[in-house]
């Protein structure tokens, strides 16, 4: 299966199919889920991860719950769906796409408007499946806008995995790189390891190498020195949430990459769909930052690498202040500072377009 055909999150005949990312890069395993509770667990343990992929998986989880409750009376169906939404929303706190995906499906699965719980369940499935198709189209649009920012011969630094594996397909930051390569530009990618879970080493390096894109692995602490030596021309990363003022919440270490870019006069780009923008958060400091188990730091692939008994801090995300962001690549174009008005206008324009289409 080529990466173009690969779907990180998929739906077939009432079954959710997810690439199990905890098994990569060693084996490509697609797991099937028939129960929303199992989908919630897959999100929690990061079999599926990356903001848009989490949002799509959670939307399909709500669809599974709706099918499970399709024979219930309307009020019991509603209570059942609300419980499923609560369980799915409790899995990871930072990526806003999770809540966005759940809310979109719950909002349309109205048994009174649809005439029955069965009608609402069908509507839920259709909405969740639509989210999958939209995600791919949105990523391709971001790719088209973002590719213009990459020059022939550039080496691009990326952090974590904002690729096909973090979305339904194609990717956000890696979608920009894919689009630039498709235009015939010679692009080299430096993928940093992304301690502690190593998404850069395990996932980004895997998916780019598989596509024949020129990728080189570096440790997280090498980027500033490579910039100083002139070996990097820009950075492109993804986001888990973008606040109303343009602050970017993304994988821990993103802030350091942005600071290093600023110190070396290099552009720092963030590729994120509008579903990642949260206008209810006035700044990144309001966004809940997930704290994950210390074992992610103390162990690598189950093997202890630190002295026992030493406490560990493991925040999974950080906040990059908007003033360090050179451009925000979205599906409606590249937004520039001041991000407050640019984001408000882009989101309002998008809502108007959706209302006209409805
Ligand atoms: O903890 P993860 O692996 O889910 O974190 C993923 C990231 O931080 C990505 O950069 C972000 O979700 C954007 S993915 C297009």
Task: Summarize the SSE layout with pairings.
Elements: E1 9-12, E2 15-19, E3 30-33, H1 36-44, H2 51-68, H3 74-89, H4 96-108, H5 117-147, E4 155-158, H6 173-182, E5 188-192, H7 199-210, E6 214-218, H8 223-228, E7 234-237, E8 241-243, E9 248-251, H9 254-263, E10 268-271, E11 277-278, H10 295-298, E12 299-300, E13 303-304, E14 317-320, E15 327-330, E16 333-335, H11 339-357
Parallel strand pairs: 4-5, 4-7, 5-6, 7-10, 8-11, 10-15
Antiparallel strand pairs: 1-2, 2-3, 8-9, 9-14, 12-13, 15-16
Helix pairs in contact: 1-2, 1-3, 2-3, 2-4, 2-5, 3-4, 4-5, 5-6
The structure holds 5-S-methyl-1-O-phosphono-5-thio-D-ribulose (MRU).
CATH architecture of the largest domain: 3-Layer(aba) Sandwich
Q: Describe the biggest sheet?
A: 7 strands, mixed
Q: Please trace the helix and strand order, writing H or E for each element.
A: EEEHHHHHEHEHEHEEEHEEHEEEEEH
**Share in helix:** 40-55%
What spatial order of strands do you see in the largest sheet? 6-5-4-7-10-15-16
Tell me the total number of β-strands: 16
Instruction: Specify the number of helices.
Output: 11
Distance between the termini: 36 Å
Q: Output the CATH class name of the largest domain.
A: Alpha Beta
Computed structural class? alpha/beta
Task: Indicate how many domains the architecture comprises.
Answer: 2
- Approximate shape: globular
CATH topology of the largest domain: Rossmann fold
Mean pLDDT: 97
Uncertain residue ranges: none
The fourth-level CATH homologous superfamily of the largest domain is Translation initiation factor eif-2b, domain 2
Bound molecules: 5-S-methyl-1-O-phosphono-5-thio-D-ribulose
Rg:
20 Å
Fraction in beta strands: 15-25%
